[in-house]
## 1
Amino acid sequence: MATPISADRLVAALRAEGVHVVERPGWRTHNRNHKGPFGPVNGVVIHHTVTSGTSNTVSIVERGYAGLPGPLCHGMIAKDGTVYLIGHGRTNHAGRGDGDVLRAVIAERGLPAANEADTDGNTHFYGFECENRGDGTDPWPKAQLEAIERAAAALCRAHGWSAASVIGHKEWQPGKVDPKGFTISWLRERVAARLKSKPSAAGSNSGSAGGSPAGSSTYVVKSGDTLSGIGKKLGVRWEVLAQANKIKKPFVIKAGQKLTVPGKSSAGSYSAPPFPEGLAPGRSAPSAQGLQKALKDAGWLDRSVPLSDAYGPQTQKAVAAFNRKHNLFTAGHPDDPAIGRRGWSLLHELAYGK
């Protein structure tokens, strides 16, 4: 039993565990606290979304459905292992479940079968929705399963819980089947094994090392690594990594090289790249790829969409959704597919400014 951790501490715990985190706009104050308490918290519930497509799924868990307003989780774990932070506080994810199950979670013992719905789970549990159709055939990529393990372990570690505090939605609420495609007992075994050692990002060491600046860590470059790939893995902009390690064009790194990974306090401020003139829906220009990449990194465009010089329908749809969310209507209507200067700057700040 514990007081919920702060938003900053949640981000730090996830990143320390090696999770690639994307902080969605407004997630720190997006909650249902006006409908009831959040806390004391006792565990973590894992769900599947019954959806496909990362950008679509992020949008759904943020907004919710008719009769079930968002946020529908604290974090959404995508197919590629990215954890999109959706809400902080009370969220609509667990619903009413079995009080006997809650008591077993608190005692960290085996769970009874859920056969009642007499207790408010949204008060007592963090919730992670995982992108999957839930039909038993939609695959669970290795990166996604590892991210589920790391995210669950991060919260257990932050609260001093054992892996017994991680449960599936189907273990909490009668009639639920999620998550479908892997067993929660398998996940608990993975979390238990991870909790036996100190938290660390893949290939990195926690804490300062060898004279690195306070709040920083080190990363040992592996064969095939790139600065952008390392940055995504550790939740740090690649430009910051390059600056911290005095790496200049063509930004070459070598296997075995030790990189300083700056902490949040040393990451510096971020300025969006200059707005590209001539960037417009239906036109072809190299700058469209920069727009598409930023849309992907901010969670507005599915990562499966290939980068292209064409400012085509998928890019236009993502930009229109972004503009609606932030009231950026450069053409005066809510489905404007054009990115303006304000939108360009805000999009890049949200994608890379954390």
## 2
Amino acid sequence: MTNCEECLHYDYDEEEDVCFCNMDLDEDEMERFLRGDSRSCPFYHRGDDYSTARRQ
């Protein structure tokens, strides 16, 4: 089971104070994301603290 919070594509928007997936999801993928069902996410890529810091 994947965890969106560990994914490289999961970002935080400081202005809106929300977390979101920055991938271009289709309707079915967005529905799964909003339900929290990320087990079969085709975009999941686990990131570490260093790779996340490099993107900032």
## 3
Amino acid sequence: MRTSRLEAFSDGVLAIIITIMVLELKVPAGHRLTDLVHTTGVGLLTYLLSFVYVGIYWNNHHHMFHLVRRIRGGVLWANLALLFCLSLFPFTTAWMNDSRFEPTPVVIYGVNLLSAAVAYFVLQTVIIRQQGPESPLRQAVGIDVKGKISPPFYLAGILSALMIDRSGWAGVGIALACYVGVAIMWIIPDRRIDRVFRQYEAQD
């Protein structure tokens, strides 16, 4: 089957996830900048981080399916698993925000990030297995340095929030730095798939 319905459904789910997250932001009671910072400041920061992550997944998902023309059932289920993990972002983001970065919500947020990364890797692997070892996606992914580096960073953040200075901010600060660091790493443009896609189009 073709990928058009899967892509359209995924785009719709990701758009809804972003909408739910922004609706979680609290409107300031007053009209001054200090009211915004006091009421919504933390929420804006957590929303921004999660928005960037959803944007990264949408971007990578979009580019990946440029190299996929037909899919089978395994890809549909793997894609649903990814969307399930991403659909938890509004919940874990809101909990981390409302708790003012207590260790347990920060850990759960990290687990959410890790599970989404694993689900994306599974989706990518299922597609490559269906296409074969010479598939365009396999060529585009290459050694996948970013994909291999990300999970250890998430694990480091999770363990930091769990084990380091649970009564203070050190462990949570390290965890948040790990989560933000991975996001920044993925924001940096990666031209692998674009390059292979241009070659793929030129062959048709």
## 4
Amino acid sequence: MPSIRARTLLLVLGMLSLSMTLISYKSYRDAQHEIEELFDAQLAQTARLLAGMVGRDMPTTDLQALQDALDQVLLARPSQDDEILLDGHPYEGKLAFQVLDEKGAVLLRSASAPADLFQQMAADSAQTQSGEAIPAQPLSAIAGQLLGYRSLSLADYQWRVFLLRDPQDNHWILVGEREDVRGELVGKIARRSLLPDLIGLPLLALLVWLAVGWGLRPLQRMADLIKARAPDNLTPLVLSPMPAELEPMGAALNRLLMQVNQLLDQEKRFIADAAHELRTPLAVLRIHAQNALAASDPCDRDEALRQLGGGVERATRVVAQLLTLARLDPNGVQLAMVEFDLLGFFRNELAELTPLALERQQELSFEADEAGDYRLHGDAPSLGTLLQNLIGNAVQYTPVGGRIQVQLQACHDELLLRVQDSGPGVDATLREKLFERFYRLEEGQGAGLGLSIVLRIVQLHRGTITLDESPLGGLDVCVSLPRHGVTPA
């Protein structure tokens, strides 16, 4: 993927080039139109000057002198150097003119004007739409139809002509220019108006490139600062001054660094606690193994082996719970959420857990309204682990012959699970500590991970869990599970 700088430059320069192209094209067309109008005005102005110079009764000698003077002016050419003009200007038009009397006789005519210019103009006008010629008409009738501007084709050239009527002297003045000469001048003038745009666009592109680079410099400084940090440096990122656009990114990075730091601290504490929790069972196992090896009496050896088996079972339970916590870690494997019937699933799970209660002569009961709707969108294996830990804790802390009551209630948008026991209960000030890893009451024999696992499973299902005093005298654990729980990202 291209860099932000390249994408920004491509977008800005692309839009700038497109807009300047459209503006330049519009300016070129407007300039071309205005220059055309200027040349048309020059034709009209020249016609009026000629009308003022040629009188009705002007002598032939004066007409010839005027003809010679006009030929000299119109045949003047600019020097080779367009900037220093000696005899003319490069933008001078090559005008051609004819002055005709009322009968159509030519009084004056420029050397560049075709002899039949007026006749061709009259002939073009005398054609019908079908191409048939109109019968000959008097000059005054024909010329009256041609007053003003007109474009016509003559001798392989296109001409732009203007016809003026002088009613005072009864003259007709026809002034024209060749379209190719005129178009060359128009194009040259219009193109020169585009030179600032053609020269300015590369310069503007360079300035935009420098401006974008200067604007993105804080981002580059932030990238260099992050790149130069040591892998174990999780302190907040400090960039001063921080542009307003980078403040959300800086805040997000600092929040991420803080979360990573917290996560690493938790993992360090978890590993330390796990090592401490496993060190004691392993030491006990070694002592029981040594006692079994050193015992000479078969009864002592059997007792040591029995104690060894109990220690292995406890160590196995601790390891299993640690693996369960690792599987339920936020960065671990996501749960497979499907819709299933929680009532039937819990009933099967309780059937397998009942022997644990019977072994301690405890009464384990299950209450649920059979007519309720117990469909839930969740992960069945993890919810099975949740029920096993809650029942295991209740069995462990309920005295021999006590009671454990499990209730499942279907509400409109959630399912409520309650596990109540007749054990000694937990003081209200200590109940929240039960969710901490490796925390257990003094008389407990577990690893202190059961309720931590339960809490994580509830969080993954976006539910809630509360601890209260049970009507049976012990602890009341209430779990609320929304019917459409979704695993958080």
